[in-house]
Design a protein that fits this description.
alpha/beta; seven-stranded mixed beta sheet; five-stranded parallel beta sheet; globular; EC 2.7.6.1; ribose phosphate diphosphokinase activity
Length: 311
């Protein structure tokens, strides 16, 4: 007898979760969340999850209540005797805290991994982690998906001549190199220097972009300061056009204004995080729902998911 698969969503990711459920072919499960006057909240499943494979869908962007809600849902599913609990986290928050890069600081990504496991998650499914090694912070299986399966087809559909892939920093060079191989494109790298977080002090371009159509690649856009500065530098070096492709649209602070005022033709992101401002004409959203729904089916049916890994 086939084990039942049940899908539930945190409140912050209901839009994406509904798309995933539609592609999966199941309705979202019934979940009630009670808010208390002091700010606490309590999720409760309004249907039995006993013996089922439960998919709990929720990106853990700020505020931290989004993470806490997912943790409480994991705990509730565990205590309700769910057989398998998969935390589907399109955007994995705190991923930038993946190492101790200064004295007396935490490794936040490791802490979140431990909390998810302690709460009852038996598997994690996520996309484009800020650092691949975060998978090693877990003692449970991690399905690390890549948005390249979404973006590469879109980039090809643009039919750009003299295509060049650019990394906005040295850390993204591997990602840019992988894309350039699949797209048969040249690669350039921006080298940035920071004195404080979220503020680029200086930037240099390594490579030639004159007359090229350039696509900047990144795993996330936070304040958009790096992308805006990189796009200005690339255009100043004689590029024909510049676009940005990034998986997670964190978009904090003045990010929307920076994107709108930048020389970028468009900024392509996924819906792993819902946009707070839909009026910026340059932002194009591609859905990651079909990718997650397909992989969830494969996991539930105990099939290999290697076909979903382009890079």
């Amino acid at each position: 007898m086939q084990q039942q698969a049940l899908l539930f969503s945190t409140r912050s990711s209901e839009g994406l979760a509904q798309k995933i459920a539609d592609h999966y072919g199941e309705k979202l499960g019934n979940l009630k969340i009670v808010d208390f006057s002091d700010g606490e909240f309590q999720p409760a499943f309004e249907q039995s999850v006993r013996g089922a494979r439960v998919f709990l869908i929720g990106s853990t962007f700020q505020p931290s209540d989004n993470l806490m809600e997912l943790l409480l849902m994991c705990d509730a599913a565990k205590r309700a005797s769910a057989d398998k609990i998969t935390a589907v986290i399109p955007y994995f928050g705190y991923a930038r805290q993946d190492r101790k890069d200064a004295p007396r600081v935490p490794i936040g990504a490791k802490l979140v991994a431990k909390m998810l496991t302690a709460a009852g998650a038996t598997r994690v499914m996520t996309m484009d982690l800020h650092a691949d090694q975060i998978q090693g912070f877990f003692e449970i299986p991690v399905d690390h998906l890549y948005a390249s399966t979404i973006f590469i087809d879109y980039i090809k559909s643009l039919n750009l001549d003299n295509l060049t892939i650019a990394s906005p920093d040295m850390g993204g060079a591997k990602r840019a190199n992988n894309y350039s191989k699949h797209l048969n494109a040249d690669i350039v790298i921006c080298h940035k220097e920071r004195k404080v977080a979220n503020q680029v002090e200086n930037m240099l371009l390594i490579g030639d972009v004159e007359g090229k159509n350039v696509i900047l690649l990144d795993d996330m856009i936070d304040t958009a300061g790096t992308l805006a500065k990189a796009s200005e530098l690339i255009m100043a070096k004689g590029a024909k056009s510049v676009r940005a492709v990034a998986t997670h649209a964190v978009l904090s602070g003045s990010a929307y204004e920076r994107i709108e005022n930048s020389p970028m033709v468009e900024v392509v992101v996924t819906d792993s995080i819902p946009l707070k401002n839909n009026s910026v004409s340059k932002i194009k959203v591609l859905s990651c729902a079909p990718l997650f729904a397909d992989v969830m089916h494969m996991v539930h049916d105990r099939k290999s998911i290697s076909s979903k890994f382009i890079i």
